Amino acid sequence: ESQDGLTDYFASVEPTRERGEMALHEQQMEARRADVRGVIAGLAADPMRTDVAPAVNRTIALLSQRPALASEFTHEHGLMPVVELLQQAALLPPAQQQPLLEPLLRLCSILAASGARYMCENLCLLGAVPAVALFASVTGVGSAVLLQVATFINTMCRAGPATLAMLVASDALPVLVKLVEPELPDRREQTMLAVDSIWCLFQMRSWRAPRSDFCRLLHANRAIERLARVLHMGRHLQGDDDGTKHDYMVSQAADMLLLFSHADETVARGMLAVLQDVVLALQEASRFAPQTVLTVLKCVRNLSMGPSAHVEALQRAGAVVTLVFLLDGVRDDAPFALEMRGQVLLSLYHLCKLNRLRQEQAVVCPPSRGIVPHLQDAVLRSTQLKHVALPMLCDIARASKRSRTELWKHSGAGFYVELLTQEAWRDDALEALAAWLADEPRKVEAVLEKPEGIKRLVEVLDTQTPATFENLLDSLRKILSASARINQALGESQFVPKLVQRLSHPTPVIRVTLLRMLTSIYEQHRAPKKLVVQYELMSVVERLIESDRAVLVKEVAGRLHKAFKASEYL
Question: pLDDT digit string (tens) for 182-198?
Answer without folding.
Answer: 999 899 999 999 999 99
